[in-house]
Amino acid sequence: MSIQFYDTPSRAKRAFEPLIPGLVRMYSCGPTVWDFSHIGNFRCFLFYDVLKRYLRYRGFRVEHVMNLTDVDDRIVQQVNDKRATLEAYVKTFIDGFFVDIDALQIVRADHYPRATQHIPEMIELISRLIDNGVAYEREGSVYFAISRFPGYGDFAHLDVTGMRAGARVDTDKYDKDDVRDFVLWKAWIETDGELAWDSPWGRGRPGWHLECSCMSMKYLGETFDIHTGGVDLVFPHHQNEIAQSEGATGKQFARFWMHNEFINIDGVGMSKSLGNNLRLRDIRAGDDAAQRHDDITGFRYFVVTNHYRTTLNFSREALDGATNARQRLNKLYARLVTLGTDGNDLDGSNWAQQVDAARVAFVEAMDDDLNAPRAMASVFGVAAAVERALSATSLSQASAALVAAFLAEVDAVLGILDEAGTTADIVIYNPELPEALDQMLHERQRARDLKQWARSDELRDTLAEAGVAVIDTPEGPTWTWTGSTSS
Ligand code: AMP
Ligand code: ZN
Fold this sequence. Notes:
By secondary structure, the protein is α/β, with parallel strands linked by helices. The protein has helices spanning 39-57, 73-82, 86-103, 119-131, 208-220, 234-249, 289-304, 316-337, 351-367, 372-391, 397-414, 435-449, 453-465, and strands at 4-7, 12-15, 23-28, 61-66, 135-138, 141-144, 182-187, 204-206, 224-230, 254-260, 263-265, 312-314, 468-473, 476-481.
């Protein structure tokens, strides 16, 4: 059984294994903090969250980085219009972002790098691209030369030979060798006001695509495992990230690309001009705290129990439906953990077997490109059977505990119950050590037998990195998962 993820450039599901056994390095395009994030953005961040939680459940440690875009045309304009400082302006939206992700119980990333705090690294990356002959300077701006990067367009399956400026690879108004070239460094113009940084090409600011190449490679290395984002970013943003990163390093950038579909509202796309740009705080019915909690967790339930690659339509009815389904599981869980009277399991009910089968079905569905709807069908199968047994008082406390433990595991992955625990004590479903780690464990033992202590310590550290603690016993080494170490 292996995990399969749909990889955008392959247009197919591929078996997933990280480059470093046991450790998944993952980068996600984060919010542009020019405004509060809307529920579409949160669909995206919830997709990252379930992906990360599921990888942890399957025994991987996950190193996760999400950028905060804190300089772009909109921010520059707002800061100058409002005569604010950039710091003061973006603070409101960065703070708001963290309040919202906490309310949604999204596990925090390990790093949230901000573009404006990585200007020297971005300048260095641009210099590397110029040295490699794939970027050039014009009147204080620097552009990426698409014609010098063979395969530009392959990622998004686009034929770019006849592409014009109108195709929106880049919409700035500076002179370039080729209309298709996109900007890496934008020379200062009058409307930028004070918002400019020094560079070898004069004052200016970085292009948007550059920050993701720069900050992902800084925190995760030149080649890492998974890059995520919404489908709107496939082109040009992610294609340009690949060109910039691979144009600099000559190595593969991200090994898997995963993209979530959009969420619409009552059948139409969200936009400021339509006035249907819902923020998280807009979906609650009133100021009542319990209602707010129900709506926000109901929204989470709605998003995470649907498939991340289907377009979702948000409506009050959809939210109510999700809230009801969530409450049903919540109530069931509460009854199971507080079961006062010990019923008698019916002959042949074999709850251990039923729960195991449901767990296997849950894992198989999630292994199959995070098929949450199918995974939830197995959860509701058991839930319905248990509800029947409870109303007939034919459930023992021991069986109730087995079912509750399974629901807590489901909760560790999807984060949908109120009381099942926190992600800090996430359960790990991985009865076996992956082969590469198993070999490392044996190699460490051989090193010990040969008294090669430095080598054996080194392997112990590598195993620890992958979340495996080695325990030496008189009968030889054993191991245990140390659980999540990434947050
Ligand atoms: P932004 O703040 O616009 O840079 O977007 C942050 C993330 O949200 C990006 O990965 C987008 O692809 C994603 N996103 C934007 N709108 C939606 C939507 N309606 N549904 C799902 N994801 C979205
Ligand atoms: Zn990005």
